[in-house]
From TrEMBL:
This is ABC transporter domain-containing protein. GO terms for molecular function: ATP binding; ATP hydrolysis activity. It comes from Thermogemmatispora tikiterensis. The keyword Glycoprotein does not apply. Gene3D superfamilies: P-loop containing nucleotide triphosphate hydrolases. CDD domains: ABC_Iron-Siderophores_B12_Hemin. It comes from the Bacteria. The keyword ATP-binding applies.
Length: 466
């Protein structure tokens, strides 16, 4: 029998040149817990993409959104150009299949019965399996190497065998897009490789589009030509060589990572903190660029222009304290030398503030972007004030930094208090102060301590580079 698992309606032109899957500005949160904000991603038909990220970074959540189990709070997901919401469940199941990390089966299903369940979108609950359906089920078991286990109860199989049965079940759906959630979790190295070889073969020979959440960086580099690094948002997206950049990984995973080449192939080794190798790795990294003399405080996207400009000008900087999931955090992970991080949507902890205090003693310039200030982050301004009083140059970036000075500069104040009021107005803090006035008072004190209000991005850069 010829094993044909090519999707039934497979036709690249059917999508009219559109990406197979498109995530457009998707924001999502569970009831009380926002997870990510404004995620954009495209998958072309036939791609094989690895989704990387630390525990809790939102990989499973993203996969559940893509499979239609969850719905975005904002934004939209399009499959073959059509919004996911407009797909009927059965119809969707013929195009997208999901392989979960594990599946708890309460009944004694045999392997064959379970794989047949994958065929349900084609036959319906009361429908009967025709010869073509049976052939598909058989083909799915053949290609995953579980045909010999057909009559065995699923619950009695080893982890590796079970994982392959779950892939077979997904393949019986004849999907175009296969979403795998850590397909190699719980597997020993032999089964890890077997499962990934299988997925790679399905991708290469059957044109299956694959998106798989992966924890093992080495395996990800080996099997996936494109990697997406996720940390409550997309931090990096590209080839393994660009995404698996040691300093980027170290920032995202919070641990020293070394990348080496063995016999012409890139390999990755994660080094535990405190070890001699980790220390050497950190020293090597530190030697690669001068220590940053600039610190950026931002949040909610207010730091984007400044951080991008600093990076373009090759001015190394530290950033923080930023909550995971904040778009400025995602960007800082990509661009900053080091990012001081707080848990998602949590107020700043004492530990984070102490880290900030220490970091501020190492820099010469502190740039405060026009961020919203609430009870959760107002302590940043308190630390900025301490730094200013200790001689750190503080730049308060005015909102909507313009190419020219605002016209109100033509007004010449006739007293110190008038000048202070004018400067305070230029910071625009009153409109962003959600602390009942505390933030405004702190900004006023910063101005009294010598902080400058900067309206032009070029001036921020010139002062940072000085
Ligand atoms: N059903 C849920 N209700 C509320 N919060 C949830 C739910 N599922 C996940 N979360 C939270 O959402 C965040 C992202 O979780 P998610 O499982 O998507 O991450 P992940 O990257 O897949 O993690 P891991 O690598 O550990 O599997 C976590 O903080 C998690 O606690």
């Amino acid at each position: 029998m010829v094993v044909n698992l090519r999707p039934e309606s497979w036709n690249v032109s059917a999508a009219g040149g559109l990406p197979l899957l498109e995530v457009r500005h998707v924001t999502f949160g569970y009831e009380l817990q926002p997870v990510f904000f404004d995620v954009c991603l495209q998958l072309a038909a036939g791609e094989m993409v690895g989704l990387l990220g630390p525990n809790g970074s939102g990989k499973t959540t993203l996969l559940r959104l893509l499979s239609g189990v969850l719905r975005p709070t904002q934004g939209e997901i399009r499959l073959q150009g059509r919004e996911l919401d407009r797909w009927r469940r059965r119809e969707l199941a013929r195009v997208v299949a999901v392989v979960p990390q594990e599946l708890h089966i309460p009944f004694d299903f045999t392997v064959e019965q379970l794989v047949a369940l994958g065929r349900l979108p084609f036959v319906g609950l009361l429908g009967s399996y025709g010869p073509q359906d049976r052939a598909r089920i058989e083909a799915a078991m053949q290609v995953t190497g579980v045909a010999a286990l057909a009559k065995r109860p699923f619950n009695e199989l080893s982890g590796g065998e079970r994982q392959r049965v779950l892939v077979a079940m997904a393949l019986a759906q004849q999907p175009r897009l296969l979403l795998l959630d850590e397909p190699t979790a719980h597997l020993d190295i032999r089964y890890q490789i077997e499962v990934l070889e299988l997925v790679q073969r399905l991708n290469r020979e059957h044109g299956l589009t694959v998106l798989a959440a992966m924890h093992d960086l080495n395996l990800a580099a080996r099997y996936f030509p494109r990697l997406v690094l996720f940390q409550r948002g997309i931090v990096a997206d590209g080839t393994p060589a660009t995404v698996l950049e040691p300093r980027l990984l170290s920032r995202v995973y919070g641990i020293a990572v070394q990348v080496g080449i063995v016999r012409g192939t890139a390999h990755f080794s994660v080094v535990p903190p405190g070890s001699r190798e980790a220390q050497e790795a950190e020293e090597e990294m530190a030697a690669l660029e001068p220590p940053p003399r600039v610190f950026v405080m931002a949040g909610g996207g207010s730091g984007e222009r400044v951080m991008r400009a600093l990076a373009d000008w090759h001015i190394p900087f530290l950033a923080g304290v930023l909550n995971m999931g904040d778009s400025d955090h995602t960007l800082a992970l990509r661009l900053a030398s080091r990012v001081l991080t707080e848990q998602p949507y949590a107020p700043l902890s004492q530990a984070a503030l102490e880290e900030l205090r220490t970091a501020l003693t190492t820099v010469e310039t502190l740039i405060i972007c026009p961020m919203y200030v609430g009870p959760g982050n107002v302590a940043l301004l308190g630390e900025a004030l301490t730094a200013a009083r200790q001689g750190c140059r503080v730049l308060l970036v005015a909102p909507e930094t313009a190419a020219t000075e605002p016209s109100d500069m033509a007004f010449i104040p006739d007293s110190e208090s008038q000048e202070l009021s004018l400067l305070l107005a230029r910071t625009g803090i009153a409109a962003r102060d959600y602390t009942g006035g505390e933030a405004t008072r702190l900004v006023e004190q910063l101005l009294q301590a010598g902080a400058r209000v900067i309206s032009r991005l070029t001036e921020v850069l010139a002062l940072s580079a000085a």
